[in-house]
Amino acid sequence: MDSAVSGGIGWVVAVNLIIWTGIFLYLLRLNGRIREMEKKS
Amino acid sequence: MWRDASTWAAEALAVFAKEWRCEFRTRYALNTLALFAFTTLVVVSVSLGPIGVSLSQGTAVLPVLLWVILLFSAAAGLPRAFVQEEETQTAIALRLAATPSALFCGKLLYCLTLTAALELLVTPVYLAMTNLNVKSPGLLVAVLAAGGYGLAAGSTLVAAIIAQARSKGTLFSVLAFPVLLPLILIAVELTRGAVAGDPGGVALPQLLLYDAVVTIAGLMLFPAVWNP
Amino acid sequence: MKRALAWLLWLWMAAVIAGAFLYAPLAKGFIGQSSRILFFHVPMAWVSFVAFIAAGIWSARFLFLGRRPEHDRAAAAAVELGLLFGVLATVTGALWARVMWGAYWNWDPRQTSIVVALLFYGAYLALRSSLEDRDQRARLSAAYAVLGLAVAPFLFFVMPRIMFSLHPQSVINAQGKVEMESRMVQVLLAGSAGATALFFWIHNLQCRLTALSDRKSALEE
Predict the structure, then answer these.
(1) B60 contact partners, CB below 8 Å, separation of at least 6
(2) What ipTM was assigned to the predicted interfaces of this complex?
(3) pLDDT at res. C175
(4) Contact at CB, C6 and A17, closer than 8 angstroms
(5) Mean pLDDT (whole number) for C195-203
(6) How high is the pLDDT of residue B136?
């Protein structure tokens, strides 16, 4: 929160977007793996 | 149809009578309730000290302690209604003999009378020990009745749910408290109002609504809980 | 088709995050940038609420509409996710409370409601873990979830109204007027919608995983 106050709001947005994208890609990969397992069984 | 209704009522009353007959043989639940309630009462009274609390503190804190005593006493004494059946293996016979809804009502009646006895025992002693002056005694009686009903009804259903699980003692508290907390919080607010002399008790309808909801939920869910 | 939806969701949430920091104004009466946490806290609290209701509905479906195992799996997954989002909502709420009112915890009615909801989730999961027989576990935990659903209105609506609140006025107050600036409302609603979609996606993944492992253990028996 301090970095945001001192004017680094761009950094906060960037960090948030990176974390968000990471979570998202992980979920997509999980989706793919589950679909493979479903096809196998 | 009326004959069905009267046999159903007869079944429920039979269950109720059986509960009390068993209870009087051992007096286990009554003893547990009474012992727990009085011990907690003494602890509360002693820790408040001989000087007592000021009027404003009293209005804020003492209603809470009363309901804490009632809640924990109920948790100590009421679950036995179903746990005992499973432990003594009479549950199987009961499943064959009784209609689920009649059984639920019988057990509910039993828990209600236990809770009523608890409240009748605890409240006057509590008021005397804490020197609490209640300005709207009518409202207090109403809150105790409605709140006590909710306590008993919620506890009966949860007791039925946990009776078939392991570690029943702790599991009952864990499951029952979230269900009963809204009831307790509303009841405490109303009790504060009764102590302070609030004439209306504007939240009382909500308490009654809670009672209705829990009763209906119990009637609907009990057959699924009881029979596989 | 599903992949396209997923990327759309990503785009949506990225827009929400950007909007939360760059587009929406700061709320009046809040210190510095702290009101930004609202855009994370509110969607998560909303999702926790959705999870509670969803678990109750799936449990009711299970009990009264055929005892199908996929409904039981769906209810359990909803509770687990509800717990996760609920904890996140509580933590973000506590952080905000610290900044605004100097204390992490005040037991104001909304904080109380979320804690009781967390207790419900914990109790449900404790019940499930104490029952080994699959049918019994599904049946009894479903009954408890429906009981929770029945009591939920008192938890979320009645109690907060009865008790005095430090919590800021909710978006729609008693007269039905919108109190917050429209930009904030837009980002909040968009964030809540995105978070809900995210919840159902993760929930779907969880259900499929559990179905696979159930099938596997059934084969092994």
Answers:
(1) B192
(2) 0.88
(3) 35
(4) no
(5) 93
(6) 85
* CB pair distance less than 8 Å for A17 and C14: yes
Give every residue of chain B whose pLDDT is below 50, as ranges: none
pLDDT tens digits, one per residue of C36-70: 888 889 999 999 999 999 999 999 999 999 899 99
More confident residue, C168 or A32: A32
Query: CA-to-CA distance for A3 and C53, rounded, in angstroms?
Result: 38
The total domain count for chain B is 1
The confidence band for C207, taking pLDDT boundaries of 50, 70 and 90, is very high
Lowest mean pLDDT among B187-196, C94-103, C118-127, C144-153: C94-103
**Structural domain of C120:** 35-166+177-220
Q: Evaluate whether residue C13 is within a structural domain.
A: no
Please state, in angstroms and rounded to a whole number, the distance separating the CA atoms of residues C114 and C134.
Answer: 29
Flag whether C12 is in a domain: no
C151: in domain: yes
Contacts of B36 (CB under 8 A, 6+ apart): B72, B73, B76, B77
How far does the CA of residue C156 sit from the closest CA of chain B (Å)? Answer: 9
Which of B161, B181, B186 has the CB atom closest to C143's CB atom? Answer: B161
In a domain, C17, yes or no: no
- Domain extent, residue B111, equals 2-226
What is this structure's pTM? 0.87
Token pair belonging to C153: 């209105």
**Which residues have C-beta within 8 Å of that of residue C189, sequence separation ≥ 6?**
none
C-alpha B93/C-alpha B85 separation (Å) is: 10
Window 27-86 of C, Cβ < 8 Å to A? 32-34, 36
What's the CA angle centered on B20, arms B19 and B23, to 5 degrees? Answer: 90
- CA-to-CA distance for C82 and C145, rounded, in angstroms? 12
Number of domains in chain C: 1
What is the sign of the dihedral through the CA atoms of C71, C73, C79 and C84?
Answer: negative
Beta-carbon separation of B206 and C154 below 8 A: yes
Report the 10 Å Cβ neighbour count for B18.
Answer: 15
